[in-house]
Amino acid sequence: MSCKDNLRVGIYLCDCEGKLAPTVDFNKVKTNIQTTANFEFIRIANFLCGKSEQERLAEEIDRYSLDRLLIVGCVDPKIKRQFIEFGEEKGICRYHIEFVDICKPGKENVEGTVSLINEGLLKMQDRSTIVYEELNVLPEVLVIGCGKEGAATALAISENQPVTVVDNESSQEGKQLIEGKKNITVKTGVKVVGLEGFPGQFLVRFLDNGKHVKQSFGAIIVALDAQPCFNQDKYQLRLGERILSLSQFINDDKDYSGQKVTFLLGQADEDSLLSHAAVLKNALMLKEKGADVNILYEDMKVSADQLEQDYEAARARGVNFLKYNGDLQVHLTAVAVTVRYWEPFLPQIEQIRLVSDYLVLAEDYLPDSGTADLATALDVRTGPDGFFQKDNVHFLPIMSNREGIYFVGSCHGPIHGIELQKEIETAKAEVGRFAGGKVRVLALQPQVTAEKCAVCLTCYRTCPHHAIEIVHDESFNNMYHSAARMHPLACRRCGICAAECPGKAIQLPLYTDQEILQQISRPPKLVAYACENSGALAADMAKSLDPNLQIDLQIVPVPCSGKIDALYLLKALEQGADGVLLLVCHKENCKFVWGNERADQRMEQVRRRLREAGLEEDRVEIVYLAANQGNQFIASVQSMAARINQLGSNPGKVIE
Amino acid sequence: MIVVENKPVEDILQMIAPYKKVLIAGCFGCVTVCLAGGEKEVGLLASQIRMARQKDGSPIEVLEQTVERQCDKEYLDKFQDNAREVEAIVSLACGIGIQYLAEVYEPIPVFPGVNTQFLGANLDVGVWEEYCMACGECVLDKTGGICPIARCSKHLLNGPCGGSQYGKCEVSKDVDCGWHLIYERLKALGQLDKMAEFIPAKNWHREKGPRKLVKEELTLERD
Lengths: 656, 223
Description:
heterodimer, A: alpha/beta, Rossmann fold, FAD/NAD(P)-binding domain, 5 domains, five-stranded parallel sheet, 19 helices, 32 strands, B: alpha/beta, 2 domains, four-stranded parallel sheet, three-stranded antiparallel sheet, elongated
């Protein structure tokens, strides 16, 4: 066994101040390793965690130009952290430091230690592709939307990098705020019709006032204002001189001083903080101009910054807040508009009649009319009520399913002003990474073996992040001279592609098939493939809930349940497990869009295959859980353990 | 692409019941692309077979190998080391590969691991549709680029028939009427007059048996 020649490995055997010396003869290990393995430097250390040893280690890293460290000794998370921090200071990436714990029972001898060291070296070789890549990126940012939100976003970002703001036909209220400003170009009558490329180097196709043009950008921010929309069907009221929609009211410049104005909330604006914010703001302004103001509400929504203060201020200045319950009736006469309603806290009182000069109706906020088309053009997803972004707890507010494309403001659901500010700041930080024209990233994206790539497009189509391209390169040794490539800036490292590949051409660094299958080479009764965003965390929690928890279980962490290859399930059973669990995130809540759905489909596939092979399909089960469901983890594992006890030993296991 | 579907494992187990050592032969061509016969599927099937046989008390050794294409002899030669080791081979290539493999490796029995379905397009992950039946005499110029042989249930050259309703075929409401598609396409192309053109019946009679194509200007003079 040898490492690739270009790796400069330093092996450190630490006997922990002599504590390990009685069990393992380090000199013999060293001699053995020297004859079998390929490395740059090896040394027996006495106390590697100590300060003086670390100084010596630092010196040796420089002297021998070491870029990989293999630490052999007693290993715990604290020691790991210490060495990872140390490595970072010395410019050695965390994935290039390998730990070999020789305190494992059964391995406390020369032979065992040597085999563990060789395993470690092999792992290092697997990880040899993990290197830092420096990529050229464009600092230019495209902001889609020239309303107030788009303008505010553009202004913030233009402090650091150039911004182009485009808008097709929606509100261009923000135009005058940004036109002519430094670092900002504004183009109206421009529709985004297509997108190619990857973060840092997007190529955007536009229909610019009827002409097809294209331009490159580093990142894209969608900031289309949600549009207020009066819903005639919900109100069953006709707008007129005395009954106005909120946007009609905002846009007219009539003098309401001395008039009685009633705002009506809760009839057609459910779930919308925007309508509550707008009503409060206008009620306050109106009150200051000397009007008599009522707000009729069913539930007052103030769950956003500043709204509570606005509510308090409105009350203090004499705006009447009137709560109603259920249906209400509106009567219009030539001189007034009357609302009849029921007061929920005073049931003995007959219907209340509220007479006003004007009735202002709150409105729905709907996504910009171009949202669906834009989502198709950018290949990003829409969610509830047609707004951008799926309703998924794993998604931070500005995140889309693609790196380098962000949603700011009410385009992803009606949000209130101060939240908007926070989103703008976050987006500014995100796109700010590209301001310098270069980024340095760890190449942790899946690696493709071109010889095995059939360019079948399965990975390309199943990637939820649009992170894959098919590239042509004469050096690729297959009949097409083409292969899939995962872009380091676009890839989120879920590993779905690796699990989908029909040619086994794709390997995700740190989670290669070899690394995963090695963990189940001699499995216990139960193997659980656990998503690191839910199952694996729930397992950790379970341990803290019940430190005495004893289950004969091997947990194999995966970055996403979409990485759980059908082959992993069959292999676990073939190699001796009696049952296999898939611990995955709740439906519709996969951090990687559809990883858990793919896992579910693969489980069904494997159950079919077991049936066909005459084996019990119940040996494979999927469990949906969240990171904080330690109890659910315990219950699921115990119930599976009971099930396999009932089923008995797996008759299909093939053990040599 | 040639589209295939995996045979149920029960069938394969029955075929290889007498043997103690077999090779699963994958193909890197169409069957990898249609997710039924590449290295991945070879591994899954091998694992299934090992477990099924273990359970039945007659353990089996299963070798796994995938080559570029099973429809070319040079690639089939790559199986020779493994073929020598085994009593039988299960091929996951299309019907062409299975036959050619059986021919090259006679007298080793070669069994089909897939059912070859049709020549089709990959519409999306896991979705394929028949587009061509290799009739040998293309009429796509007359039918707006939609094949009446492959996509009309009755292979009618002059359609639609009376079974076309609301764009669907009387065979099944899930099947598009091929001639309806042709009509819509010709309309979009502004070539509706082609609907009135009569396409004469094909000569389906094969005077010389199975088809063979020899391009004299390309063949080598081999001794």
